[in-house]
Structure prediction request, 93 residues.
Amino acid sequence: MSLKRAHVLISGRVQGVFFRASTLEEARRLGLCGWVRNLADGKVEAVFEGEEQSVAQMIAWCYAGSAYALVRDVEVITENYIGEFDTFSIKGW
Prediction:
């Protein structure tokens, strides 16, 4: 099992369209840990940790996002796996 960590920035119409809640649901479904939050500039930021295949699936999901989102760009920064999270959460809730 190969573990991976990805730091992701999603831009477009991604705030106020259930993006964070949908990200939480999908990340938990995939067994990932980490967090998601809104940024002041209108982007959504997330960190995903878990099995490499699940992280890849989550990143692919980010390109479509929630039902009402309109994703314009997804920036993915691969980082070293740390294992610092026990679950996936929404920051700022």
About this structure: Residues 3-82 form a domain with the Alpha-Beta Plaits fold (CATH 3.30.70.100).
